[in-house]
Amino acid sequence: MTIKLPESIEDTLTLLNQGDYIADRSLATTLFLALKMGRPLFLEGEAGVGKTEIAKVLSQALGRRLVRLQCYEGLDVSSAVYEWNYSRQMIEIRLAEAAGNIDRDHLSTDVFSAEFLIERPLLQALRKDEAGPPVLLIDELDRTDEPFEAYLLEILSDYQISIPEIGTIKADQAPIVIITSNRTREIHDALKRRCLYHWVDYPNAERELEIVAAKLPGIDKTLSAQVVAFVQALREEDLFKLPGIAETLDWADALTQLDQVALDSDAIDNTLGALLKYQDDIARIRGSEAAKLLDQVKAEVSGLNAVGS
Question: Mean pLDDT score of the chain, rounded to an integer?
Fold first, then answer.
């Protein structure tokens, strides 16, 4: 059974909440419009803020197949779109030669038919699916080269792919397209014009606390409040790589595995590798700086608890 797309911004928020994705209203609005208008959604933001997760949640909540293209430098058509099964084609040619009845024109047509086509993610996403058009995730597009961006223009404009030996393959229904970028380089305007755009920022403390509670329902409330306050304070520091939501969840989970119910200096120093991913950042925070931030966090959380009571 095909699950209907959300019919309002509130429905979109509810859909995301079902997948434990706590979104702000501006993101839900842009996502709703992208689904309503049938336009790709282009999400930019720092690594670890939850861009990729949106596609996963949409796929799960709508019961649609998730087709993921993980981008990297040097990505080409044979890896992203299609390639021919050359070994099978050679076997077919050898069998025809052995049979002694080679019609070269007919054989050429046979070996370049759909039977010998290996479909990669972009072509797979154009195929019809009983559950409805799939969710196509083009992840970390900024890692690819500009020529590949140019190749995407036809797909994102008309949802079709041209294969010289076969012709044009066009989707009966456009897939739901989510494109992410960590902004390690600028994406060309020609591609952005075909999309609706949203910058996914770090969450404020209130929303991050909701995310931790949703993803780690068994966590101690005092610990989660202190973890979020500590991470929020870290994002004010001049670090090489600020921790994202993914790192917050990893750190909170690690502390829970160690049976921590509150932060202390030793726990912070011993587990910073779950939160910070560069040695220079860890060395800067570990010790006296972590202790100073911890004092700040405890005072802040105590103050909030006093207000709440």
Answer: 91
Q: Map tokens 């649609």 to a residue.
A: 64
Which of 15, 48, 20, 19 is CA-nearest to residue 31? 15
Confidence of residue 113 (pLDDT cuts 50, 70, 90): confident
How far apart (Å, rounded) are the C-alpha atoms in residues 45 and 180?
8
Domain span including residue 23: 9-75+120-199
In CATH, what number is assigned to the domain containing residue 194?
A: 3.40.50.300
- Alpha carbon 44 to its chain centroid, in Å, reads 10
> pTM of this prediction?
0.89
User: Got the DSSP string for the chain?
Assistant: -PPPPPSSHHHHHHHHHHTT----HHHHHHHHHHHHHT--EEEE--TTSSHHHHHHHHHHHHTPPEEEEE--TT--HHHHTEEE-HHHHHHHHHHHHHHT---HHHHHHHHTSGGGEEE-HHHHTTS--TT-SPEEEEE-GGGS-HHHHHHHHHHHHHSEEEETTTEEEE-SSPPEEEEEE--SSPPPHHHHTTSEEEE-PPPPHHHHHHHHHHH-TTS-HHHHHHHHHHHHHHTTS--SS---HHHHHHHHHHHHHTT-SS--HHHHHHHGGGT--SHHHHHHHTTHHHHHHHHHHHHHHHHHHHHH-
Q: Write out pLDDT tens, residues 147-197.
A: 899 889 888 889 999 888 888 999 999 999 999 999 999 999 999 999 999
Contact 49, 200 (CB under 8 A): yes
Number of structural domains the chain divides into: 3
